[in-house]
Design brief:
This is YhgE/Pip domain-containing protein. Keywords: Signal. InterPro entries: xxxLxxG_rpt. The chain is of the alpha+beta class. The chain has 2 domains: 293 residues, no CATH class; 235 residues, no CATH class. Helix content is 60%, strand content 18%. The strands form 4 sheets. It has a 9-stranded mixed β-sheet. β11 and β12 form a beta hairpin. α7 runs antiparallel to α10 and α8 runs antiparallel to α9. The two termini are 56 Å apart.
Length: 714
């Protein structure tokens, strides 16, 4: 706001300087300097001295006739007034300058009691027209008038702040204030005539001290304080500035002093119309630049306001973003706390995982070391099953029976025939056919070696046990593979284990049936002996029939059981062949599993180390998040302050524009924009006011007024 006030003050100064153009300061100060040079050391300044100073300040002494005029009229109006400025008498002195040495001069005057004051030339009068016989000389004459004055002077007095009359003031002491007010009541071409009024008065140092003057100057020579004040009544109205408080054009002046035994001599006021020309206002053309500057200033102030508004809005958006950031960072801090807690938990779990994966790798490595033994066992089982398969042959094709199936089939067939033969004997006393049949059966029984079958079944039982163990081992391998993540090999090995286990169960049931049948076969020898004895000794056929029936049933069961065993042996051989063929894949899978478990153990160790490193940095991370949250809070507080400051700036700039620049531009556009034309018009009016009492057509002229007020004394 200080900058705004300073800029407004600077522009006020510019505008005031344009209007006054040194008309006040230059004129008053020049008169003061001249008066100082000419002032005397007399105890009281004379009326002549005061008049000279007033005329010098008002510009009256600078007046001359228009260049090239053959005849011109210089007129001085002397006004006598009381101490308040009220007129009591008016005298006019006219000087007809006969530049062309004419013998007769025609003049116009409304004066009365006209007298030639410097010669004996006579005149004739016709109405207001005077014709002077000049004899080639200048004419000086004097007259009287009661015509209204264009400018009046009003003098008022105060003592110690109270209004007093001149008579009441005489001989008093205290603080005195004297005010001279100029009232312009003259118009020329529709505007107030631009008079300059200058008043001179003497305030002796013996009575007056601490003198202060408004719109004037004090000239002191040690004995006298000559005060010269100045005013331009009506000029502010002519310029259209009567409502513009920034521009001060005085129409009065004030003297303040401390007085002892008040006494004051006459005051002399000089009134002239020529001061504007003397002040250097002959050609007023510089307002164009001012006009451009005012427009640029107004445009620039609008941009400043728009810019400050944009800055304020941008700061508001920044504040909103900072608030969101602050909230987000709070959530981040909370999330980081949860994250670091999770990292700590994960680090603990990572350590456990690393330990367990190491144990897993060690177990898989042990399994890897046992794979060769497992594959050797599978190979041996497969070789044994091949031998069994050769003894049994193909149970589905009788032409491809092995020795065991061939014997059991013949045994079952012979036992059935024996049973049929025995049952076919119907009370016959002859045993020839029976004996023959028994002999044939005996031969067939001899073809079946029970001990050999028993040996085969024993071997088969051993193979079944090996088969069960292999199935269990395969199942254990499948579980290990599954636990290690090798789903593909685990599924393959598990399927083989299930198949092998199912076959082992089926073959075990067939073996049980074969063993039961074998018990029957083991009794064949006894049965053969008994049968032979029965036939030989004439034993009863009932016993023989019972024995043959058991033999037929047992041999049929044995054949059926051995056929099942043969099928189981074939299936077992096929399964072991497939398992034996897969041992290479199993070895490769376990090798890959071992290698993978090593990598898993190493990776889990690295993971555990990394998690522990993260865990070690948890405090630093949480501390940094806390600092970030604090900084975000400070940032948000800063954006709040920034927004508040920019808001103040915006309102300040807006006030600067509306109250300052816009007002200056308004004042300029409404009051100053046409100032050049107005000043030129005023100058013309100043030049056109060339007389008071009258002037002949074509005659150049000038006029000034001198108003003398009475002295004040006790």
């Amino acid at each position: 706001m200080h900058t705004i006030k300073t800029m407004m003050k600077q522009h006020k100064v510019v505008l005031v300087a344009i209007v006054l153009a040194a008309a006040i300061a230059l004129t008053a100060f020049a008169s003061a300097q001249t008066a100082r040079a000419k002032s005397s050391s007399a105890s009281t300044a004379s009326n002549k001295t005061l008049t000279a100073k007033a005329e010098l300040a008002s510009g009256a002494k600078a007046q001359t006739s228009k260049k090239g005029d053959a005849i011109s009229k210089a007129e001085t109006v002397y006004v006598k007034a009381d101490a308040t400025g009220t007129r009591t008498a008016t005298y006019v002195s006219d000087w007809l300058q006969n530049a062309g040495n004419d013998t007769a001069l025609t003049d116009v005057s409304n004066l009365s009691n006209i007298q030639n004051v410097k010669g004996h030339e006579k005149y004739t009068k016709n109405g207001n027209t005077l014709t002077w016989k000049t004899k080639g000389k200048d004419i000086y004459y004097r007259g009287e008038t009661d015509a209204a004055l264009p400018v009046n002077v009003q003098v008022s007095y105060e003592l110690n702040g109270e209004s007093v009359t001149p008579k009441e003031l005489a001989g008093k002491s205290g603080d005195v204030k004297i005010t001279f007010t100029y009232n312009n009541e003259s118009e020329t071409d529709g505007i107030t005539t631009p008079f300059t009024c200058a008043t001179a008065l003497d305030l002796p140092t013996s009575r007056f001290t601490d003198i202060k003057v408004t719109n004037g100057a004090v000239l002191s020579d040690g004995n006298n304080n000559i005060v010269v004040g100045i005013g331009f009544p009506g000029l502010k109205q002519d310029l259209g500035l009567e409502n513009v408080d920034q521009v001060k054009i005085p129409e009065s002046f004030t003297v303040e002093a401390t007085v002892k035994n008040f006494k004051m001599g006459n005051t002399l006021t000089s009134i002239s119309t020529d001061v504007l020309n003397r002040a250097g206002l002959k050609d007023i053309k510089s307002f164009k630049d001012l006009d451009n500057a005012i427009n640029q200033l107004e445009n620039a102030s609008g941009k400043l306001v728009a810019g400050s508004l944009a800055a304020r809005n941008g700061s508001a958006a920044l504040q909103t973003g900072a608030a969101s950031l602050n909230t987000g960072i709070g959530s981040l801090q909370s999330g980081l706390n949860q994250y670091t807690a999770g990292v700590a938990t994960a680090a603990n779990g990572g350590t456990t995982l690393a330990n367990n994966t190491l144990l897993l790798h060690n177990g898989i490595n042990d399994l890897y070391k046992q794979v060769p033994e497992l594959t050797d066992g599978i190979s041996q089982a497969y070789q044994g099953s091949q031998q069994l398969a050769e003894h049994f042959g193909d149970p589905n094709d009788s032409n491809k029976y092995g020795d065991i199936l061939k014997g059991s089939s013949s045994l079952a067939s012979g036992a059935a025939q024996l049973n049929a033969g025995i049952n076919g004997v119907n009370g016959s006393t002859t045993n020839v056919g029976l004996v023959k049949t028994i002999k044939g059966m005996n031969q067939q029984l001899q073809a079946v070696d029970a001990s050999k079958v028993n040996t085969v079944l024993t071997n088969y039982q051993a193979n079944l046990k090996q088969e069960g163990e292999s199935a269990k081992n395969l199942a254990a391998v499948a579980q290990s593979l599954a636990a290690k993540g090798d789903a593909e090999n685990a599924q393959k090995v598990g399927t083989e284990a299930k198949t092998l286990g199912a076959k082992a169960q089926t073959d075990a049931a067939a073996l049980q049936d074969a063993q039961s049948s074998l018990k029957v076969l083991q009794n064949l020898g006894t049965m053969q002996t008994q049968l032979a004895e029965a036939c030989k000794d004439g034993g009863t056929l009932d016993q023989l029939a019972a024995g043959s029936s058991q033999l037929a049933t047992g041999s049929a069961s044995l054949n059926e059981a051995l056929t099942k065993v043969a099928q189981g042996t074939k299936d077992l051989n096929d399964g072991l062949k497939q398992l034996n063929d897969s041992t290479g894949s199993l070895t490769d899978g376990v090798d890959q599993l071992n290698s993978g478990s090593k990598k898993l153990a190493d990776g889990s160790k690295e993971l555990s180390d990394g998690l522990n490193t993260l865990k070690a940095n948890n405090n630093t991370l949480n501390s940094g998040a806390a600092q970030l949250a604090g900084g975000s809070s400070q940032l948000y507080a800063g954006t709040v302050s920034l927004t508040s400051g920019l808001n103040t700036l915006y309102y300040g700039m807006n006030q600067f524009k509306t109250v300052g620049i816009d007002k200056i531009a308004s004042v300029y556009n409404n009051n100053f924009k046409d100032l050049a034309n107005k000043l030129n018009t005023i100058k013309k009016a100043s030049a056109d006011y060339s007389n008071f009492s009258g002037i002949a057509s074509g005659m150049g002229g000038s006029v000034n007024f001198v108003i003398e007020t009475d002295s004040i004394s006790k």
